[in-house]
Each structure stands twice: as C-alpha cells, then as structure tokens.
Amino acid sequence: MTRVTSYCRTVLDRAGVGYAVTDARGNLLWCNRALGAVLGVPVEQAYGRSLPALLPGVPEVPAPAREVLAPGPKWLEVRCTRLGDDLMYEVVDVSAWRDRELTVAQEADALRRAQALGRMGTWEWAITEDRVTWSDTLLEMFGFAPGTAFDFELYSRLVHPDDLPMVEETLDAALKTGSVFTYTHRMLRPDGAERVFECFGEVVLGDDGAPLRALGTAHDVTQSSRVHDELVRMAEQDPLTGLPNRRALTRALEQELANNGSGALLVLDLDNFKDVNDLRGHAVGDRVMRMLASALQSRLGDRLIARLGGDEFAVVLPGASPQDASAVADGLRDAVAGFPLAGIGTPARITVSTGLAEFGPGDSWELVLANADLALYASKAAGRNRVTVYEPNHYADTVKRVSVLDRLRAALAGGGLALYGMPMVDLHSGTTLGHELLLRLEDGQEPYLGPADFLPVAERSNLILEVDRWVLSTAIDALVAEPDSRLRFNVNVSGRTLEDPGFGDFVLDRLGSAGVAPGRLGLEITETAAVTNLDAAVALATQLREFGCRITLDDFGSGFGSFVHLKHLPITGIKIDGEFVKGIETSAADAVLVSGIVQIANGLGLSAVAEWVERPSQVEALRGLGVRVGQGFHLGRPVPLREVVSAERVPPNGALSSRVVGAEDGARS
C-alpha cells in the first residue's frame, strides 16, 4: 500500500495537469509541480497562499470548468470540486488548443482573402545560391514596390529586434531537420507602421539530406494580434487611466508575499472627488482623474501603482521601511495638493487621504489590503489629507472583517443567504406593483449581521460579484416558479458589479434560458455608484434596457448633480431619496424638491417611487404632490421571498389604512 501511495504521489508530481487542494477560504494546502509552474511560485512557498489571488478568475466555490486568462499569457481550464471540507482544483493549460483553434481560423481567413483578392504573399529561398525571391504581393505587404531588390539581410533589419532571434532559431532548426515550420513576428515597415505576420514554410532536402531550398507563405495578422493583445490588456488594466487594475495589484502583492518579500502598501483615496463630477461633469472628472493618475505614476517611477476603482489607488513598495513608505506617501499627498487645476475649471484644490500598511512573510494580500484600508479610514476620520500608518490595535477590526467574509463565503456555498421582498405600492389603490428584493444573511451564527454589516465588507472584495449574481439568479428562479406577469422584482446592483464586463451578458443569458419576460426584472443602481462608475453604468443600463429590463436610479437626489445624471443614464425610473420624504408633511423645502422631482420625472417619462414612507400622513402629502408609488414600513415590511411568490396578489393589500405606525414600524430596512 505504501508503494502504491508513493507511485500516486510521483504520478501527480510528474503530471502535466495542475492539481491543488485549498481550504474553504482558497488558501493552498497542497499543489503539484505543474500548478506551481503555472503560478510562478515554488511549490514549497505556495502553501498557505491565496489561490484566487495568485490566479485571478478561479472560482471560489465548486463550479464546472471555466477558462481563465493567466499572465504569460496562458489560457487555463479550471475546474473546482468539493473534497470533504476543502476544495480541489484541476488546472489544464489549453493555450496550445486555443492557439491551434486560432491558427485554423487564421488559415481559413487567409484562404478567403486569397480567393477574394488574389493576395497571397509567398517567398522562396534558394539555399545553395543564398538568394531569396519574394512575390510582388508580399513586397507590397512589407511596404515596398513590386520588383524591389530585397534580400534576407534587409528583411532581418525590418523584423522587430525582440522577434529576430526566434525567427533565426526557427529557421536554423528547420534547416537541420528538414521539417515544416511556422513563426509569427512583428515587422517595422519603412513608413514606420508596425505589422504582424504569420509565416508558414517547409524545407526541401536533396538526396544527400542537405537542404536545397525553403519556401513558404506569409499573411498579415495584425488585426487579430491586436484583438488578442487588447484582451490581455483589458484583463489587468484600468480603461480610464491605463494603470494596472485591482486584479493586477493583488496578483503582484501575492507574488511578492509568496517569495517572502517585505515592504509596504499604500491605499490612496481622493477626498471629495465626487464633487468634481457633480459640479463640473464627468468629462472634466475623467480628465482630472487621468491627469492625476499620470502625475502619481511619474512620481513613483517603476514602482507599481494601480487604480482600485472609483477615486481609489494603491501603491506597492517592495523592500520599503515604514519611514521610507511614509516619505513616499507624503510626497504623493503633496503632489496631489499642489496639482494645478485652475485652468480646468475644477475646485481650487484636491487632496488625498492615505492608509499605509507594512507586509512581510506570512501575511496574505487580503490582510495587508484590509490593514491599509483601516488606516485609510482613520485618515478620513481624522480630517482627510493625511497619511495614517496601520497600528496593531486595529487588528480586532481586521479580524472582524475577515470573519464576515468567511461567513459570507460559507453562506454563499451552503445556502445561508436569503432574499426578502419589500413591496412597492400604488398610493391611490393600495395595489402592490412590485417588490424590491433585499439580501439577508441567515446562517444561524452569532452575532447577527445585517446588510449594513456585511455588504460594505463584501463590496471591498471580489466576493460581491458572486453575491450579486446569486441574487439575480435567485430572483429569476422565483419568477419562473410564479409566471404571473404581475409579479415583478427589483434587484440592487453594487458599484463593483457595474465594472464587471460580463454581468450584462450574464443577466440576458439567464433571462433568455429561463424564458422570463425582461420587463418583470428591474435593476436598481444607487446614484453614488452610478456617478462613480458612470461609463460602466451607462453601458450596462443601455444593454439591459434595449432588451426590455427596467433600470431604476436609487437614492435620487443624494448628489449635487442629480438632475445632470438624467441626461446621461438610459433609465426607466427613479427612487426619491428618503431624506426628502421623511419630513414631507412638515418641511416646505422637501415638498418643493419632491414636487420638482416628480414633474421632471413625468416630463422625461420616468416612474417615480418615494422611499421611507412610514406614516399615514406621508401618504397624503405624497399624493398631493403627484407621487403615485411609495415604499416603506407603513406600506409593507420585507417578507421572505417564498411568501412573496406564494401570496395571492389581489388589491387592496391594506397598506393604506389609517392605523398609527409605532416606533418599530418607523424603522427602515
């Protein structure tokens, strides 16, 4: 039995397929050498490290095979299955298969081009005479007139210097073996343009086995190469600033930790940058963001700075002491404060708050980022525009956040999440027109965590992307279970999910496969999230609205530029921020503002829902101002989704009775 076990271990260690076992949090317990090679980390140093950080995109819960783009670039097929209380991963490098698929597609494209245009570049090399003959078409593709004298030396000078050694090695190997060959290289044409060529050839041998000639074809694959490069770039680059994104930062930080590196992490947040967008518009805000990003990057030189999202950045400082890191942070703070903005039309000064956390062997990237976040929060609380170093007495808060993530991951995998429906009610008839679905954590553990406890923590990690997809899938499943067209749901979308490029397609695929009418599903985006991620919000809202989904701007009125956003966002409705509703019967200012919002919504053909309706007197006041739909504890408390689906939907529902609402009823969800 010992020999069999030894053989099994040897086979796994020599296998070309990567295998790994992690705990429920994704920390590596074991992996074989093939996986260590993929991760770029020695096997013995990989143990205890976070697999999702070292290999971004891998599932964190059991999931069927999915493809992940890894640095290199490499295409990996990753499958995650449960192994007792742990997780087992199988990682297969499918890059060669994808390359073959791409090659077949490119060959087919070349054939179509040749048939349609008659443009096929060919060449032949008489080896004994050292003379190369190029077709006129190929010369034109290289940027020369037909008939131009063009020898191999000139060709070599035009090949990109980084690619020339590979071309020469491939040709030398083919001449020795007489085999067919292929290579792809960049060429710098005489007009300065860079093109990418894919070449195929074969060597003809004489009777004595010596090479006589080589011949081949070449076609321009610049466009497909650019598409491939763009996909790789998009995976780890922020589209607005061109800086590395969160995914690139966590990978770099985890690799530094896996190699027993030490140093410091800075997390920077621009103070009150939202005011720039609100007061000057997003075109100016984007311009300022790009300029600030460029200024910060130039100040840091070769050190990694990434945009985490919104107005937040992070800097990795390998080998830096706390004193050195503080000096760098102070320099960045001064650079931002002194940035010239007078000619841009923005407020006279922008400042930045910074959190600093040390890291060293034994730390995880999640812990380091959490520590820097806590220090950043301390900078904000102390008055902004300052640098705060993480202190050990913050550890209790860090443990709490990590514990919340652990509970949330377990709930997502084990059925500990639940949805509750809060009705949206016609204020005249009392008819329930739809429900907003609210997320609850019901894992049976203490202490109880409400949405305000776990959602902000989830939104600071990639876990919120899986949570949002779970909410949407569960809502659609409920709509399938109850086909009554009067049952309509609104689900909330986090700011992080707005930046998920695949979320829109995911929604449409789920609706299409389930056969649910798109109009039965609405997405709610808070005004703050929309402002912070305006381009992403516009893209998602446009895609889903064209398909027939409803898009609502939540907490409308909470920002300075609220009415400006209505020009840019393709929404179908708004929810009036509860701050304007809670004193609607007594505040003349609130009444004027709500009346104006309703008139604008009506003029733009948008629905308007009043939030925080908690007293009968509010209903009367809202009716008088033209508000048709309301939501709040007076109109209906959140109830489990199963009760919403099984309830008989007949008006009225009794929500508009004149009963007195007690203190408990006045609480908000």
From TrEMBL:
Q: Which CDD domains match?
A: EAL (cd01948), GGDEF (cd01949), PAS (cd00130)
Q: Name the SMART domains on file.
A: EAL, GGDEF, PAS
Q: Where are the transmembrane segments?
A: none
PAS domain ranges (all copies): 4-51, 132-178
What's one Pfam family here? PAS_3
Q: Which region is the signal sequence?
A: none
Describe the location of the PAC domain by residue ranges: 181-233
Taking every annotated instance into account, which residue ranges of this chain make up the domain GGDEF?
Answer: 261-392
> What are the residue boundaries of the EAL domain, all occurrences included?
401-652
Q: Which NCBIfam families does this one have?
A: GGDEF
PANTHER family, alphabetized: BIOFILM ARCHITECTURE MAINTENANCE PROTEIN MBAA (PTHR44757:SF2), DIGUANYLATE CYCLASE DGCP (PTHR44757)
What is the designated name of this protein?
PAS domain S-box-containing protein/diguanylate cyclase (GGDEF) domain-containing protein
